[in-house]
Structure formats: structure tokens, C-alpha cells
Amino acid sequence: MGKFPVADAEISHTKICRKCKGRNSFNAIRCRRCGYSSMRPKNKVVKRKK
Ligand SMILES: [Zn+2]
Known about the structure:
The protein is of the alpha+beta class. The protein has one domain. The chain contains one helix and three strands. The protein has one helix at residues 5-12, and strands spanning 14-17, 23-25, 39-41. Strands 2-1-3 form a three-stranded antiparallel sheet. A hairpin with a 5-residue loop joins strand 1 and strand 2 (23-25). 6% of the residues are buried. Bound molecules: zinc ion. Zinc ion binds at residues 17, 19-20, 22, 31, 33-34, 36. Zinc ion is lined by residues 17, 19-20, 22, 31, 33-34, 36.
């Protein structure tokens, strides 16, 4: 989780289009930018720098 709980909640409601990587609402069935129907949930785990 990130620093801001509010931002985390916002991120967890987001899906990313596998084609154009556009952000869509979690309820979206198709990408609103390109119409592609395959989406993944946005990664919640942030990679840490060493
Ligand atoms: Zn797209």
C-alpha cells in the first residue's frame, strides 16, 4: 500500500487496458479509449527502490 489511503482506494478501483494501457473504471467492460475488452486490475503493490 502507498502512503495515502485515499489514493489506494482510488487505485484499487482502476483497471488498465492491456492494449493501450489507458485507465478505465473498475466496472468498465471495454476500454473507453480503444474499445479493447481485455483489462487487468491496476497493480496495488508498488515496487520499492533499493
Ligand atoms: Zn485501450
